[in-house]
Amino acid sequence: MSHHIVEVKGLHHTYPDGTLALRNISLRITHGESVAVIGANGAGKSTLLQHFNGYLTPTAGEIRIGDFPLTRETLPDIRRTVGMVFQNPDDQLFMPTVYDDVAFGPLNLGLPAGEVDERVRAALAKVGAAHLQGKPPYRLSGGEKKRVAIATVLSMSPDILVMDEPTNGLDPFARRQLMGLLREFRHTRIFTSHDLDMVLDLCERTIVLHEGEVKADGPTRDIFADAALLAECRLEKPLSMQGCPVCGTRG
Ligand SMILES: Nc1ncnc2c1ncn2[C@@H]1O[C@H](COP(=O)(O)OP(=O)(O)OP(=O)(O)O)[C@@H](O)[C@H]1O
User: Which of 93, 100, 134, 136 is the most exposed place for a label (fewest CB within 10 A)?
Assistant: First the structure.
């Protein structure tokens, strides 16, 4: 299913203030892959993800989603294909109620009212936020906002799910619930996270960014076993691979 493929060729991104955030990034993510993009603060993870559905435009290089290069003409279709959860849920929630926010995307697809309602209820139930549907988003807690932001993307049934720090601000129960949901999602998943145990659990492939460049791209366990790479990129092993300080067993 080629429409689930994300391809990046020679991507550079310089912000208007002159910050060079991405340098010559090339990668290809195919259907059904679960891929983590990790790196220290400021490594370029959010900048990279925001190119996948055209929120940022490359300074140089190309993004292809499936068979199409990302251009002004293909952008509406690509936004239907790629569901993006931003790091900050306030960037995603702007309607008077939670229900309206989750319905916004499906309504824009022109779906009949009954189907929109079905999608909204299913998406809110999946993130455990059905009870919040009548509330204004600005009255929600940080973790509640995050869950609703995720529901706004799920209600669009995207082919490719892109999430920037999806577990940020979630309590342990909500984190586990989200991990279950990501595990169930059968199409392409790409996310950034500092939650390296989640990365180890959910992603067979990990891409390491360091100072705007791809430093490594490979099987997640191999990445976390490379102590020199982790040290160079200011990363640590997931807790579950650090061994038990009491009994001395290795992860
Ligand atoms: N709007 C902006 N204008 C100028 N520079 C920016 C802008 N947004 C991000 N940057 C810079 O681009 C670089 C990459 O930032 P980015 O947000 O992509 O990092 P990140 O890896 O997602 O970090 P974090 O883990 O802290 O979320 C950083 O040097 C940052 O200061």
Answer: 134
Question: In a 3-state reduction of DSSP, which class is residue 74?
Answer: coil
Q: Which domain holds residue 191?
A: 2-241
For residues 119 and 122, what is the distance between their CA atoms, to the nearest angstrom? 5
- Please tell me the distance between residue 199's alpha carbon and the centre of ligand 1 in angstroms: 21
190 token code pair: 């790409």
Strand 68-69 relative to strand 60-65, pairing = antiparallel
Q: Identity (one letter) of the amino acid at 28? A: R
Residue 180 has a pLDDT of 87
Number of domains in the chain: 1
Q: What is the mean pLDDT of each run of 10 residues along the chain (251 residues)?
A: 84 98 97 95 96 94 92 90 92 95 94 96 94 96 91 94 90 87 87 94 96 98 96 93 65 49
Contact 42 CB / ligand 1 (< 6 Å): yes
The verdict on residue 248 lying in a domain is no
Please give the structure tokens belonging to residue 132.
């919040």
Ligand 1 close to Cβ of residue 173 (< 6 A): no
Q: Is residue 214 part of a domain?
A: yes
